[in-house]
């Protein structure tokens, strides 16, 4: 397995090692020694997260995921043949990814490390649910590594089979939580039925956690944001700026602050930050030249997707199309816009134009609690 990993991927991982571990790694074999010598590649840029994309495929096996290295600006393909079932990407957990097998209509979650080829199902939920909202919260714990911290997964709403005969499926007005430290699910409380309905029908799985609140955005226009205050189990609803004019809208977190990215009908892509009092403040607009290049012959932002981390925000569509990135440049002390070419070919063979879902994460070969 190790010999199949790209050299620049290993070099990036080695750049994160302390000196004693780096010395041991470099003495393991000639290939690792060469990669370890590439340590100078890691300056301030070694903290840049990599873009990982999984194709969104229906009814057939997912063969590979695709990685973009932001340091060398190149793409790699990693085989996913170790996964027992076709899966959909839910979100990142440190250097792991949260996924859901697609063989069942009911939600079942799993985690994997595509770099070490480790995979593990999470326990079954207490309540069988279809299409609930899923959110991830990292738990600060001094005993855990940065790349593999403790985490909680929240599942809200969804459709469940009614206990009474002939009633069919009903919306499930409860909130359930998985704690990685206990490896168990528990029902943590009720939720308003109207929130359960909207989270089930109009909310994708993407969630953002910021300052004690877990947020989701509705996928129906006009957009709105729903939040769960974790400490009090209190639900809130937020308006979205220019909600009726946005052709796409996504939540990300930038420097710890909830950020809304949206494309205005007939206009540019804008970014707003949530400030005190649940108000939004416009912080950035995509430069016109990047918008023209990104949209190409399209006249709508409707097919745009977005993923972000504290240090970078990516706008993308499919695997072959280029991406626009707004990223922190540490040595300049500011954020700048970049263009990233899409993944078009490997080994002389063209890559299909696949719809994808992306996440940002730091590759790691470190051992985790996945068996």
Please tell me about this protein's structure.
The chain has 371 residues and is mainly beta. It has five helices and 28 strands. The chain has helices at residues 7-14, 19-26, 30-36, 193-201, 288-295; strands at 50-55, 64-69, 74-79, 87-93, 96-101, 110-113, 118-121, 133-139, 150-156, 159-161, 169-171, 174-179, 184-190, 208-210, 213-217, 224-229, 234-239, 246-254, 257-264, 269-275, 279-285, 305-308, 312-316, 323-329, 334-340, 345-346, 349-350, 356-361. Strands 3-2-1-28 form a four-stranded antiparallel sheet, with no helix packed on it. It has a four-stranded antiparallel sheet with strand order 4-5-6-7, with no helix packed on it. Strand 18 (246-254) and strand 19 (257-264) form a beta hairpin. Helix 1 crosses helix 3 and helix 2 (19-26) packs antiparallel against helix 3 (30-36). The longest helix is centred in the middle third of the chain and has 9 residues, at 193-201.
List its traits.
four-stranded antiparallel sheet; single chain; SCF_F-box_component; 371 residues; F-box only protein 6; 11% helix; mainly beta
Any chance you could write out the topology, listing elements then pairs?
Layout: H1 7-14, H2 19-26, H3 30-36, E1 50-55, E2 64-69, E3 74-79, E4 87-93, E5 96-101, E6 110-113, E7 118-121, E8 133-139, E9 150-156, E10 159-161, E11 169-171, E12 174-179, E13 184-190, H4 193-201, E14 208-210, E15 213-217, E16 224-229, E17 234-239, E18 246-254, E19 257-264, E20 269-275, E21 279-285, H5 288-295, E22 305-308, E23 312-316, E24 323-329, E25 334-340, E26 345-346, E27 349-350, E28 356-361
Antiparallel strand pairs: 1-2, 1-28, 2-3, 4-5, 5-6, 6-7, 8-9, 9-12, 10-11, 12-13, 14-15, 15-16, 16-17, 18-19, 19-20, 20-21, 22-23, 23-24, 24-25, 26-27
Helix pairs in contact: 1-3, 2-3
Domain F-box: 1-34
Pfam family, one: F-box-like
Protein name: F-box only protein 6
């Amino acid at each position: 397995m190790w010999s199949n990993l790209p050299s620049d991927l290993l070099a990036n991982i080695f750049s994160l090692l302390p000196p004693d571990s780096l010395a041991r790694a470099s003495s393991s074999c000639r290939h690792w020694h060469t990669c370890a010598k590439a340590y100078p590649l890691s300056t301030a840029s070694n903290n840049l997260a990599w873009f990982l994309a999984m194709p969104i495929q229906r009814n057939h096996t997912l063969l590979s995921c695709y990685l973009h290295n932001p340091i060398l600006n190149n793409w790699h393909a990693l085989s996913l043949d170790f996964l027992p079932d076709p899966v959909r990407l839910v979100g990142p957990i440190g250097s792991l990814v949260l996924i859901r097998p697609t063989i069942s209509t009911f939600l079942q979650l799993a985690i994997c490390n595509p770099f070490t080829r480790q995979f593990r199902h999470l326990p079954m939920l207490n309540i069988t649910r279809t299409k609930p909202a899923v959110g991830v919260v990292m738990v600060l714990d001094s005993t855990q590594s940065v790349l593999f911290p403790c985490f909680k997964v929240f599942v809200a709403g969804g459709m469940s089979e009614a206990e009474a005969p002939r009633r069919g499926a009903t919306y499930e007005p409860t909130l359930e939580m998985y704690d990685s430290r206990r490896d168990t699910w528990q029902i943590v409380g009720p939720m308003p039925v109207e929130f359960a309905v909207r989270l089930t029908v109009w909310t994708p799985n993407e969630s953002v956690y910021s300052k004690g609140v877990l947020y989701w955005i509705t996928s129906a226009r006009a957009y709105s944001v729903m939040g769960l205050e974790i400490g009090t189990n209190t639900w809130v609803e937020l308006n979205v700026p220019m909600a009726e004019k946005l052709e796409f809208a996504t939540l990300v977190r930038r420097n710890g602050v909830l950020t809304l990215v949206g494309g205005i009908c007939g206009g540019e892509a804008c970014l707003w930050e949530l400030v005190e009092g649940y108000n939004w403040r416009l912080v950035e607009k995509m430069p016109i030249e990047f918008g023209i290049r990104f949209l190409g012959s399209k006249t709508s932002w409707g097919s745009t997707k977005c993923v972000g981390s504290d240090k970078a925000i990516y706008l993308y569509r499919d695997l072959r199309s280029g991406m626009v990135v707004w990223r922190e440049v540490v040595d300049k002390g500011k954020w700048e816009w970049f263009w990233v070419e899409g993944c078009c070919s490997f080994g002389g063979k063209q890559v299909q134009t696949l719809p994808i879902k992306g996440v940002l994460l730091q590759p790691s070969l470190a051992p985790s609690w996945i068996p």
